[in-house]
Amino acid sequence: MVKSKSWTMVKHFEGLPKLEDFKLEEKELPPLKDGELLLESVFLSVDPYMRPYSKRMMKPGDVMIGSQVARVVESKNPAFEVGTYHVTNVGWTTHFISDGAGFQSLPKEWPENLPRSLAVGAAGMPGYTAYFGLLEICNPKEGEVVLVNCAAGAVGSLVGQIAKIKGCKVVGSAGSDDKVTYLKEIGFDEAFNYKTVNSLEEALKNASPEGYDCYFENVGGNYADVALQQMKQFGRISVCGAISLYNDSVPATGPYIQTYMLFKQLRMEGFLVTRWMQRYPEAQKHLLKWIAEGKLKYHEHVTNGFENMPAGFIGMLTGENIGKAVIKV
């Protein structure tokens, strides 16, 4: 018998999640039936979306939502060979039985010099989010100015680099001096620590006095209120996330945005990356090519040990990571 460990949510989070909000449980898995396969998680992903979606999708006692790169260790399904790797969405668990429905298989030509964790990172969902969210919604043109906040995160760091590939000037903000240094290392034209500047408005103006054509939004809240005022005419805003608001117990209020939208004739659009699910292979092909060519650099913040998943999740929400936060089992 194979034993599976899973992290469940004890109760819905109030404010920032705490370690006591999670419980580690263990169960024995039954023998495989025809058509089934047994997988073990190798890398698990922790992402900002898990915070708001846990309230929408889960009830206390459920296994925490999330994706992983998993390896087939036993198969009674001829479509899935032992030893192959797949991206799945079965939550925070070490072993599981499946019929393979909904799997995203890693390509057989996966580069040997690249970690498979990238399938939940720069060449996976965060990469797809950056690729489609920037190119389909903002549609940046060569020479335009692109603003990215949370720019040292899993998505933002890729957005900035893809914008550079497209010939844009890129401005990024992050929450530490180390992150700002990282942004400059990967090619951002301007970068600043939003926590230490005297004025966010002045920092944005200094970075691009002429304003911004595109704004990739990951933060929301007061940052967005300030940034919208500095958009150029016909600017485009891609709303990927609002991490500054996810842990608020009381909904925040801010200035009304309609006047900025109206008089600057802005276009703002929110998105969920699953809109382009049928085009994931296209995005992954481009992302892996850019990585191989050295045009797209990645950084992983790896937490070792399945027992440390809650700490890794909380650390990601508080900004401990540069690049993609992953858990290595």
TrEMBL record:
Reaction(s) catalyzed by this protein? Answer: decanal + NADP(+) = (2E)-decenal + NADPH + H(+); hexanal + NADP(+) = (E)-hex-2-enal + NADPH + H(+); nonan-2-one + NADP(+) = (3E)-nonen-2-one + NADPH + H(+); 6-trans-leukotriene B4 + NADP(+) = 12-oxo-(5S)-hydroxy-(6E,8E,10E,14Z)-eicosatetraenoate + NADPH + H(+)
Keyword NADP on this protein? yes
Q: Where in the cell is it found?
A: Cytoplasm
The lineage's top-level taxon is Eukaryota
Q: Where is the Enoyl reductase (ER) domain?
A: 15-327
Documented EC number(s): 1.3.1.48, 1.3.1.74
Q: Per UniProt, what is one Pfam family of this protein? A: ADH_N_2
Q: Provide a GO biological process annotation.
A: prostaglandin metabolic process
What molecular function terms (GO) are annotated for this protein? 15-oxoprostaglandin 13-reductase [NAD(P)+] activity; 2-alkenal reductase [NAD(P)H] activity
Give the UniProt keywords, A-Z.
Answer: Acetylation, Cytoplasm, Fatty acid metabolism, Hydroxylation, Lipid metabolism, NADP, Oxidoreductase, Phosphoprotein, Prostaglandin metabolism
Main EC class of this protein? oxidoreductase
Q: Under the cellular component aspect of Gene Ontology, which terms does the record hold?
A: cytoplasm
Identify the SUPFAM superfamilies for this entry: GroES-like, NAD(P)-binding Rossmann-fold domains
What InterPro entries does the entry give?
ADH-like_C (IPR013149), ADH_N_2 (IPR041694), ER (IPR020843), GroES-like_sf (IPR011032), MDR_fam (IPR045010), NAD(P)-bd_dom_sf (IPR036291), PTGR1 (IPR014190)
Q: Which family does it belong to?
A: Belongs to the NADP-dependent oxidoreductase L4BD family.
Looking up PANTHER family in the UniProt record yields: PROSTAGLANDIN REDUCTASE, PROSTAGLANDIN REDUCTASE 1
* Subunit and interaction comment: Monomer or homodimer.
Recorded protein name is: Prostaglandin reductase 1
Which species expresses this protein natively? Leptobrachium leishanense (Leishan spiny toad)
